[in-house]
């Protein structure tokens, strides 16, 4: 019989796995380590996308002369965190600041010119007729 002393086991759990509560310096399993991940806000809170701190450029780009049949996520991902003018049709366009691109959608901030503020929205890529990044 083995004589066990208090402190022989740093935690309970299966051998080869971290003790309940994680390794020292970590929070509960499934949560970020104490102090959060790099570039994150307070520990345990997801990083929130930030709207631009200024209005978009005053000049609106010309509607592209080429015709697109579908917007590719790889193409619009080059516009992440840049002022981008998006057309949902030839007549309906607006300034957009994308912060996320998925397989079939893009999310970011749309400029509301009458209220002079940014509003967070999501768009299906198949609704976008054309776009132009402002570099």
Describe the structure.
The chain has 135 residues and is mainly β. The protein has a domain at 73-133: SH3 type barrels, CATH 2.30.30. It contains one helix and five strands. The chain has a five-stranded antiparallel β-sheet. The protein is globular, with a radius of gyration of 24 Å. The termini are far apart.
How would you sum up this structure in a few lines?
The chain is mostly beta strands and 135 residues long.
* CATH third-tier fold name of the domain at 73-133: SH3 type barrels
Strands, total number = 5
Radius of gyration: 24 Å
Q: Spatial order of the strands in the main sheet?
A: 4-3-2-1-5
Helix content: under 10%
Structural class: mainly beta
Distance between the termini: 73 Å
Biggest beta-sheet profile: 5 strands, antiparallel
Query: What is the CATH class name of the domain at 73-133?
Result: Mainly Beta
CATH-defined architecture of the domain at 73-133: Roll
> What is the mean predicted local confidence, pLDDT?
78
Estimate the global geometry from the Cα principal axes.
globular
Provide the β-strand percentage band: 15-25%
Total helices: the number is: 1
Topology:
Elements lengths: L72 H4 L7 E4 L5 E9 L3 E8 L4 E8 L5 E4 L2
Antiparallel strand pairs: 1-2, 1-5, 2-3, 3-4
Keyword list:
5 strands; 5-stranded antiparallel sheet; about 140 residues; mainly beta; single chain; globular; SH3 type barrels
């Amino acid at each position: 019989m083995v004589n066990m002393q208090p402190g022989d086991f740093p935690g309970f759990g299966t051998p080869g796995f971290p003790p309940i509560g994680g390794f020292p310096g970590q929070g509960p399993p499934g949560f970020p380590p104490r102090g959060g991940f790099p570039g994150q806000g307070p520990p345990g809170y997801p990083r929130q996308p930030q709207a631009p701190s200024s209005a978009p450029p005053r000049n609106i780009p010309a509607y592209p002369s080429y015709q697109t049949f579908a917007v590719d996520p790889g193409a619009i991902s080059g516009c992440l965190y840049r002022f981008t003018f998006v057309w949902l049709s030839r007549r309906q366009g607006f300034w957009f600041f994308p912060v996320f691109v998925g397989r079939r959608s893009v999310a970011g901030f749309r400029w509301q010119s009458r209220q002079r503020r940014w509003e967070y929205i999501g768009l299906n890529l198949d609704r976008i007729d054309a776009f132009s990044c402002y570099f």
